[in-house]
Amino acid sequence: MIFLRILSRLPFPVLYLFSDFLFFVTYRLVKYRRKIVIKNLKNSFPDRDDATIKSYEKDFYRNLCDYSVETLKLLTISEKELEKRMHYRNPEVVASYRDKKQSVIYVTSHQFNWEWLVAAGSIYLPIPVDFVYQPPSSKFFDQFSLLLRTRFGGYPIKRADVAREIIKRRDVVRGVAIVADQFPGHDNDKRYWTTFLNQDTAFFQGVNQLSYMTQYPVFFAKMSHPKRGYYEVELIKIAEPPYEKGNFDMIENYIKATEEVIKNDPAGWLWSHNRWKKKRAATYS
To answer: For the whole model, what pTM was predicted?
Structure first.
């Protein structure tokens, strides 16, 4: 960890030089998950020609390598520097809920750089941020990621403990943040199937259940990447209580918002994840 802290103190121009070298190794030499990336891109954009898909692929790997060094930088970056580089355009939309002592839910996707998004939310937003996460199998990476995400005040909630923590902290006015576009891979995960990026796709139904259980308004964090090392976030309300049991408008609105962001910036999403490795079974509805 000491060595990582030393690396983290390097200035951004040096870190981005390292990212360029990492791109060469990852893309040219190791060819990290390139078959998966190409397959995902071609299936998601069947109307794009090979040259366009190739440009998306290369830009994705550049973004992935930048993400790595930017995430490392979270170890030592100052609050002022992060606030400058991860700009929330409209944090005031949450202020009225704070004044009413009403908690909210934030949902986003794996659009770069989601680690900065969570960390900077604790600086910008007018209410504290709780974030839902799935602990990795490695104890080191679990501790490392929690250190980064809690450095500016974020409160961690394990995915398995969401319901318990919501009840436990029901009197705390906060925003519960969830990156909700992963494949629901556990056998006990309830899945919501729909068409996403031209493919039959499963989403966590739990995010819809969370909005019903809490009756919190839901905001989508729309990410954009105007230039290297700088990001912008716009909070867009996609659901407002009261919610009825069995209504899936909230998750449908989230899926539509996520798809729109990806189409606007195809290279900015996490294509190396084997998102569509499992197909819908006949028993699923």
So the answer is: 0.94
